[in-house]
């Protein structure tokens, strides 16, 4: 019998891991020494509780907080997070394995009496025996195997080594963590294809644990199924629900849905009852495999069987909802789960626990792990419920669960995305206080948030702090900062990062690559932008999307030659898609190369490509905007033939272009053609036609389309009513104009300045001073009265002999800087000439010339009135006018000289009238 002597620690029981079948051992209880108590003080529950009080959290006795929390407390007490604890003369490492302690007095000698070092290189499978305990290279302990028993295990075939000989005797490092025979088994399964031969040495001795590990370590689903079926064929190998869970997950990852359904049926036949993790596995693999509806069916089946999801399954379901963007459903599921879990615990324990539920409400609560709290906080954050997320975070602290780096990352990300940057800083301080060290993701989040809030200096500072903390920036770090630099045209900073990335062999993603192309172009570094493009093109790794993004970058900024070169590079690499053609057509449109755009469009079929809806729409918009409606109509018809017209937008662009160039008949013809193709017009198309007929004063045609529009169930908008007011003003339909203006005023935005000016003009023509003044005062209160509003009121006052009001209006225009248009200057000049204000007339004329506004016949007609009123003969005024028409430049100088002389001489005799 193999006997081990060990201390028995009643507060922290632990076991030495053995190989396959444990050998009976006798445990003799020996009171722990003082030294042993001191060594284990850090792991005493009472000690942890005392320490947690200082940190502002509490520990519940009897609750396992996991290794992460314990290690954090150990660190806070003053030890490293990798503190090693010796118990009963055996070392417990961080991952839970035990190793034999090295006696420092004898560490210089090995078992053969020869000197050695702790770092000495040994044979990969070298072993040594100490006190009948075998120590392997990786430090694991297991029971020595009796040779006679071992021969029985392999059926007397040990000496033949028929299967094992095909496996190298070295222990595989990737499986060394398992210890025992498992590494050799896995090595055999990887090397020997025949399962009978590979597993023959252990055919009759495989334990459940070994079968579990063998299945779990399989990468290919075919091999996993082969081994699974082999176990079933050997009647001595019982397969339990855990084994089925493993194989279901492997099949799910490979999306072998038929095999999963077959195994589910097999479980029923074998009466293997699914457990919580079975449903969690099925929900997880179906959701990740893009079969969310089937995943929900598994959840329904689980609920139907009265099974409450455990914490892991709950996390899977919540994650499923989050992946679908259904954060509200995730939140509702969490609340229901929390309530149901509380009820189950009350039934089991007999008494409710007071506290806070997972949903933040008071009442009974459940004990959650840090992982679940993180999931819960993330769910609330993505749903935009910051308050609930904070309540959950504080509940976590109250429950004695120390926040992890993941917790803080989630909280920081949530606060930053909601613009609460002050709370981000507060969380960083709290993180430091709990000695929870930021990781690479923490800094990535901080860099991204500060860059997003246009605080690029702070983002760059965090990048430096990260490196100073010996944290290696990853590709995400560099890409985030690089993109932030590029969109701000920070060329030198961006290039410095590029050099670092090149040294680390980190790839620049295509999104950042195109952003840098734009950066160089915005900075006027066209040659450098081309070199940057070529670097990725020559590497041969650019996708179609990346080519199109670069072509678009060149084209949008008018660098058509570079855009063409990039397009040709894509064509040479035989990577042309419709996307490249579309952005190149757009580039030609921006550079006004309309023939090239049409030629490129027509050449798509030569490359085996068919134009898509975007291709047609882009070209039609380009041609229509360039006042080429006939060409645009040609491609609109081709688009219709291709069956790509699903709305009236392409037709609307062409109809507007016809109207713009004055070809109203062609616009109407195309509209009728569109109706014939059963393309439904919208309010915009009707608005274009109504406005076109309003411009020519055709009430009949405008009314016709207005009635058609209403009959089709469309309501007129403000633009159409404004067009109607313009029409009614033009033809003098006062009543219709008033009714339409009233409708416009009922809109939320009210009547605009254009329609109001039309009404002022209409009232002015009819000398309806009071009505015109009401609208004008309303415009002034709104602050929307413009140059034309004042000019029309001035004309109305002048026409009605209200010179005082007209003069005040003219001076107000000059104060507000509204004298900018030739028409306004002429109106003011006409007023001053009629009212005998010669000095002001001359000053206005000179101001007009200094503003580079060329006078017209109306201007000199008013100036002629000034000269005539000052006594200049009519013949002399006619002579000045003749000189102006023969030589405009010299003629204007003569007019200025004559006006200055006459008005200067008459300044004392004919002073300007005093203002009333």
TrEMBL record:
Question: What are the alphabetically sorted keywords of the record?
Answer: Repeat
InterPro entries assigned to the protein according to its UniProt record, in alphabetical order: Clathrin_H-chain/VPS_repeat, Mito_RNA-Proc/Resp, PPR_rpt, TPR-like_helical_dom_sf
The PPR repeats are at 240-274, 275-309, 369-403, 404-438, 439-473, 474-508, 577-611, 647-681, 682-716, 752-786, 821-855
Alphabetized PROSITE patterns for the sequence: CHCR (PS50236), PPR (PS51375)
For whether the record's keyword set contains Repeat, the answer is yes
Q: Where are the annotated CHCR repeats, by residue?
A: 677-835
Instruction: Tell me the protein family, please.
Output: Belongs to the PPR family. P subfamily.
PANTHER family according to UniProt = OS03G0162900 PROTEIN (PTHR47933:SF10), PENTATRICOPEPTIDE REPEAT-CONTAINING PROTEIN 1, MITOCHONDRIAL (PTHR47933)
By what name is this protein known? Pentatricopeptide repeat-containing protein
User: What is the originating organism of this protein?
Assistant: Datura stramonium (Jimsonweed)
Which lineage ranks, top first, belong to the organism behind this chain?
Answer: Eukaryota, Viridiplantae, Streptophyta, Embryophyta, Tracheophyta
